[in-house]
Amino acid sequence: MAYNALYFIFALLLKIPKDYEAVIGIETHVQLSTLTKAFCSCPYSYGSFPNSSICPVCMGLPGALPVLNSKVIEFAVKLGLALNCNLAFNSKFDRKQYFYPDLPKGYQISQFDVPIAAAGFLDVDIPLEFGGGHKRFGITRVHMEEDAGKLMHAENGNLSQVDLNRAGVPLLEIVSEPDMRNGIEASEYAAELQRLVRYLGVSNGNMQEGSLRCDVNVSVRPIGQSKFGTKVEVKNLNSFASMSRAIDFEISRQVLLHSQGQEDQIVQETRLWEEGSQRTITMRKKEGLADYRYFPEPDLPSVILSQEYVDAIQNCLPELPEEKRRRYEKMGLGMQDVLFLANDKNIAEFFDATLAKGADAKLVANWIMSDIAAFMKNEKLTINNIKLTPEELSELIGSIKGGIISGKIGKEILFELLAKGGSVKELIEKKDLVQIADPVEIEKMVDKVIAENPKQVEQYRGGKTKLQGFFAGQVMKVSKGKANPGLLNKILLVKLNSKS
Ligand SMILES: [Zn+2]
């Protein structure tokens, strides 16, 4: 495995930057989180017992008629608008006909020549560790369709069973323009799409459950050539990381063939990404384009949108990731902060709610990204499961800024709030944590520490001035962490430097 992968990466490093260009397009299927399926009233829940959620419509029994779930249209319009697409005010469903054991009707209800949304774009911020920068990727089309069932194969290979629970579950297929040039761009595009459907609430976007599935088309051409190279489809991409690696592997495989004059060995085919061996392998060769004999679905009426309907949805769209990132950027936050906060809808909501209580953006960002993020990671919690509320975080930051408590005490309170909840005011009162800012009181503590450490005082006065930190630490200890650090150091310096 290592040899193969290393060989190709080596070839990639040598060749790609100067001679070749990769062209990548992505087809994404998003499973909609509607309560019921697209054309019947069966519910769908991932992982339920096989064939426990089926009816004559989704089993494709003769004579059963589909009735469209209006939520599917609503979700399609939402996503179409969020992807900056033009909407088709008059579209329709079509039958895409093919035979497969998990497709009992013998056709899939889809949209063919008139998709509900087309010609949009998606803006992405590439993380700094991958070079940074803002990219815009074109969206060719978004259309509605239904999912098929699932085949389950016995391990000994001589028995296959079909589970139709998933048959008829609504999907949106999003087809991108071939605008990506490497694995990172492609995986960042897919991650942004996942964020978008989560922000919109149209899908849970979970790749592991198959709620977000990406098929990637990769081709390579010599730089300067306008004609596309032969494209290869890569499937079985279960995470953004594997997507990025699979694409980079596929690019280097094709570049190697090109550079050896063997580009005729790049054929139109579907390849599977093998996570174990970190490479793509041939799954099936494409024997020309399949003829699906599309025709308009006779059992469903046209999909007509009114301007009022579209406007109502437009007016209810939440703030989308791209808008959020630009807003955070204008607050003066760095791109790393911006991406961390905006990437997760729930973290962004927590951040915004804390700001709404009057806290300073940069300070809130720091607390969330450092101690709060570390706590969530250690305890395997999401921001929705921690006991700390935005109100209390704002109160805590305000208490430190206002000098009521020291930063050190602030951290202690934070961890108590994260784990147990409660209010900042109560904790300060109950534990007597108010910062000591009375110079007389601090002076007493300084005197005590100086009197108890004569040897160190002598060393300090003999020139070992870095001992100041030691004294400051001792005084802080005496104050149980409550002394105002600025005042403490000021008084300490005066005392240490006076000759008496
Ligand atoms: Zn059904």
Automatic annotation (TrEMBL):
Domain Asn/Gln amidotransferase: 349-496
SUPFAM superfamilies: GatB/YqeY motif, Glutamine synthetase/guanido kinase
One annotated GO biological process: mitochondrial translation
Entries under InterPro entries matching the protein: Asn/Gln-tRNA_amidoTrfase_suB/E, Asn/Gln-tRNA_Trfase_suB/E_cat, Asn/Gln_amidotransferase, Asn/Gln_tRNA_amidoTrase-B-like, GatB, GatB_C_1, GatB_Yqey_C_2, Gln-tRNA_amidoTrfase_suB_CS
Any one GO cellular component localisation term in the record: mitochondrion
GO molecular function, one term: glutaminyl-tRNA synthase (glutamine-hydrolyzing) activity
Pfam families, sorted: GatB_N (PF02934), GatB_Yqey (PF02637)
Record keywords: ATP-binding, Chloroplast, Ligase, Mitochondrion, Nucleotide-binding, Plastid, Protein biosynthesis, Signal
Root EC class: ligase
Principal cellular location given in the protein's record: mitochondrion
EC number, UniProt record: 6.3.5.-
SMART domains associated with the record: GatB_Yqey
Record's signal peptide: 1-22
Catalysed reactions listed for this entry: L-glutamyl-tRNA(Gln) + L-glutamine + ATP + H2O = L-glutaminyl-tRNA(Gln) + L-glutamate + ADP + phosphate + H(+); L-aspartyl-tRNA(Asn) + L-glutamine + ATP + H2O = L-asparaginyl-tRNA(Asn) + L-glutamate + ADP + phosphate + 2 H(+)
Places the protein is found: Mitochondrion; Plastid, Chloroplast
Family to which this protein belongs: Belongs to the GatB/GatE family. GatB subfamily.
UniProt function note: Allows the formation of correctly charged Gln-tRNA(Gln) through the transamidation of misacylated Glu-tRNA(Gln) in chloroplasts and mitochondria. The reaction takes place in the presence of glutamine and ATP through an activated gamma-phospho-Glu-tRNA(Gln). Allows the formation of correctly charged Asn-tRNA(Asn) or Gln-tRNA(Gln) through the transamidation of misacylated Asp-tRNA(Asn) or Glu-tRNA(Gln) in organisms which lack either or both of asparaginyl-tRNA or glutaminyl-tRNA synthetases. The reaction takes place in the presence of glutamine and ATP through an activated phospho-Asp-tRNA(Asn) or phospho-Glu-tRNA(Gln).
HAMAP family noted in UniProt: GatB (MF_00121)
Summary of subunit composition and partner proteins: Subunit of the heterotrimeric GatCAB amidotransferase (AdT) complex, composed of A, B and C subunits. Heterotrimer of A, B and C subunits.
Name this protein carries in UniProt: Glutamyl-tRNA(Gln) amidotransferase subunit B, chloroplastic/mitochondrial
UniProt organism field: Pisum sativum
Native organism taxonomy: Eukaryota, Viridiplantae, Streptophyta, Embryophyta, Tracheophyta
Gene designation per UniProt: GATB
